[in-house]
Amino acid sequence: MPVFQSKRFRPSSANSTVAVRYRNALLRHPFALFGLPFIATMVLGSFFLTPATALRYERHDMKVRQLTEDERLGIGKDKRRIDMKEEYYKLAAKDLDNWEQKRVKRLPGEHDGVL
C-alpha cells in the first residue's frame, strides 16, 4: 500500500490568488494581519461612535430636565400667588376651639400603640 503525502495538492495557479497569499502570510504573522486590524477597528469605532452616543444623551437630557422650584410645587401661570397675610387671616377666621378628634381606622394586624 502506498503512503500518501501529508501535504495537500495545490495547483500552481491557486498560489497566485490573494486569498491564498493572505492565508499563508496570516500563518506567519497572525497578530499583524488579524489582531492589529481588529484592535484598530475597535479603537477607531469607539472614537467615531462617541458623537452618536453624546447626541443620544443630549436628546434624553432635553426630555428630562431639571424642574424649577415653582414647577415642583405645581405653581404655574394660571395659579394664584400665595400671600402669607391672606392665609393667616383665613386661618384666624376659622373657629379652632370647636373641633372633634376622629380616630383613623387601622389596617388589619396593625398595633394600636396602646400597651
UniProtKB/TrEMBL annotation:
Its main location: mitochondrion. It holds the Pfam family COX16. GO terms for biological process: mitochondrial respiratory chain complex IV assembly. It is a single-pass membrane protein. The keyword Phosphoprotein does not apply. It comes from the Eukaryota. The chain crosses the membrane at residues 31-55. GO terms for cellular component: mitochondrial inner membrane. Keywords: Membrane, Mitochondrion, Mitochondrion inner membrane, Transmembrane, Transmembrane helix. The keyword Ribonucleoprotein does not apply. InterPro entries: Cyt_c_Oxase_assmbl_COX16. It is found in: Mitochondrion inner membrane. Belongs to the COX16 family. PANTHER family: CYTOCHROME C OXIDASE ASSEMBLY PROTEIN COX16 HOMOLOG, MITOCHONDRIAL, MITOCHONDRIAL OUTER MEMBRANE PROTEIN 25. Required for the assembly of the mitochondrial respiratory chain complex IV (CIV), also known as cytochrome c oxidase. May participate in merging the COX1 and COX2 assembly lines. This is Cytochrome c oxidase assembly protein COX16, mitochondrial. The lineage of its organism: Eukaryota, Fungi, Dikarya, Ascomycota, Pezizomycotina.
